[in-house]
Amino acid sequence: MKILVIEDEPEMQDTVVRSLEQEKYLVETASDYDSALEKVALYAYDCILLDINLPGGSGLAILEELKKQQKTDGVIIVSARNSVDDRIQGLELGADDYLPKPFHMAELHARVKSVLRRRKFDGQNQHQLQNLQIDLDKHQVWVAGEELALNRKEYDILLYLVTNKDRLVSKTALAEHVWGDYIDQADNYEFIYSQIKNLRKKLKDHGAEVEIQAIYGIGYKLVTA
Hints:
The strands form 4 sheets. Strands 2-1-3-6-7 form a 5-stranded parallel β-sheet, sandwiched between helices. A 4-stranded antiparallel β-sheet has the order 8-9-10-11, covered by helices on one side. It is about 45% helix and about 25% strand. It has helices spanning about 10-20, 35-40, 60-70, 85-90, 105-120, 150-165, 170-180, 190-205, and strands spanning about 1-5, 25-30, 45-50, 55, 55-60, 75-80, 95-100, 125-130, 130-135, 140-145, 145-150, 170, 210-215, 220-225. The relative contact order is 0.11. The longest helix has 17 residues, at about 105-120.
């Protein structure tokens, strides 16, 4: 799962990023209004942690832009401004939750998981697709009751394809969602081919009733076998 942390306080940003990375999320950051606006316009995120007070503009204006572009990114406002007006305005603009500072990281994790479950999996901790079962909290996968051993990137790829079942996912979109900012350092997509190849073999060897179809030159699609 890919999360964007929009926070201008360096110490707070670093603390949140390290905590989320320990939970196996892919995390990107923005420290001011302009860079945040650019990221939300160019990329898709599963969840955005949004501060209201930003250098150069208001986080509420970013919410307005998300609404204007009809984006479906989950949003949690994380702000020291704990006024009722801010909370109401943020929720009316499409935010999923509002978490006032200061907060415990355990509460942040719980809020993020809640938003992800509601947005992607109808509020459930586990997702079933044919004989494939995914535990979102434990990052575990089973096929017909037998655990499927996946590395982190294989799991991230599978989860992204599951949330986009029967949709064609381009190589670029997959790379950006699973590798994030690091994709800029890559010369080609060979690293994706390798992970996809291993994942497809593991699914097939375990008799999974889903398969990853490769659409030559474009991307991939997860379908039921």
